[in-house]
Amino acid sequence: MTHYGAIEAGGTKFVLAVGDDQFNLLEKLSIPTRKPEETLEEVVAFFKEHPIDALGLGSFGPIDLNKDSETYGWITNTPKLAWQMFDVVGYLEKALKVPVIPTTDVNAACYGEYRFGVAKGKKSAVYYTVGTGIGAGAINQGQFISGLSHPEMGHMKVVPHPDDDFQGACPFHGNCLEGMASGPAIEKRTGKKGDQLSVDDPTWDFVSDYLAQAIYNTALMLDPEVIIFGGGVMKQTHVLNKVRTLVTQYMNGYKELPALTDYIKLASLNDNQGVLGCFALANDYLENKKVLESKVN
Ligand code: ADP
Ligand code: ZN
């Protein structure tokens, strides 16, 4: 039987998983992210114990996803210095001797929702994670939207809320979307983690405002059929209604959208959207290979 592997590679943890050909989750393990070799040795040991036929990798970035590039599959200029210019795909393919299909963590989650979750049956979707960082993955007609490598929507500029004097937490841009609305931005602004803030803390008005600006921009620029939110900060589900109200205000009737309860949704796969997206990438690769081989033979 075919087995698919998944790695959700994050800055704090790596989630490793194995699924069968029906996409049932058979094994799942979370390990802390350390230096590349140290982390990947444990990854390799896991997949040697639970063999797979192909591996989907949803990685923190930036990761070079341009197949024509000499550094395809490398983590590039990340602030996590030990991982800078590290060939993660090459390392895994060499050690495991299976094809590795890389994408961003948010693309993988977007694809999970597209194949199995709230975006199933749609032709296009955008998935935002609001957690340690903010990022978004986008799919149109079954393809990830990319060009030079992959989008970086989490770092879009947002207009500061008039009552928000926080200068922002992004080391590159200060008050970009991630700098203003990520989990660490909330913590830096208030001295408390998001889950310690009361529901009526004004911080939620600011966070909702920045996320609404992102949705407004996304709706206008990419025109997806659905926009999905995941990540730790979105466990504050009250934020979602504020975001919907503000999107309506900002759009001001200009672009017709579906009912916002259908258009702006929470992730639906119990935090397995990334893993399932990785399984689906592995499945696509193997199916495609089968088709190609049948044409050759
Ligand atoms: P990661 O981005 O590392 O994959 P998460 O998506 O869980 O992980 O995001 C972690 C961030 O989300 C942390 O900054 C944390 O403080 C914040 N967070 C986690 N749970 C909640 C919650 N219930 N309410 C608000 N913020 C939360
Ligand atoms: Zn930024």
UniProtKB/TrEMBL annotation:
<dbReference type="GO" id="GO:0046872">
    <property type="term" value="F:metal ion binding"/>
</dbReference>
<keyword id="KW-0547">Nucleotide-binding</keyword>
<dbReference type="GO" id="GO:0005524">
    <property type="term" value="F:ATP binding"/>
</dbReference>
<dbReference type="InterPro" id="IPR000600">
    <property type="entry name" value="ROK"/>
</dbReference>
<keyword id="KW-0479">Metal-binding</keyword>
<dbReference type="InterPro" id="IPR049874">
    <property type="entry name" value="ROK_cs"/>
</dbReference>
<protein>
    <recommendedName>
        <fullName>Fructokinase</fullName>
        <ecNumber>2.7.1.4</ecNumber>
    </recommendedName>
</protein>
<keyword id="KW-0862">Zinc</keyword>
<dbReference type="Pfam" id="PF00480">
    <property type="entry name" value="ROK"/>
</dbReference>
<keyword id="KW-0119">Carbohydrate metabolism</keyword>
<keyword id="KW-0067">ATP-binding</keyword>
<keyword id="KW-0460">Magnesium</keyword>
<keyword id="KW-0808">Transferase</keyword>
<dbReference type="InterPro" id="IPR043129">
    <property type="entry name" value="ATPase_NBD"/>
</dbReference>
<dbReference type="GO" id="GO:0008865">
    <property type="term" value="F:fructokinase activity"/>
</dbReference>
<keyword id="KW-0418">Kinase</keyword>
<comment type="similarity">
    <text>Belongs to the ROK (NagC/XylR) family.</text>
</comment>
<dbReference type="InterPro" id="IPR051804">
    <property type="entry name" value="Carb_Metab_Reg_Kinase/Isom"/>
</dbReference>
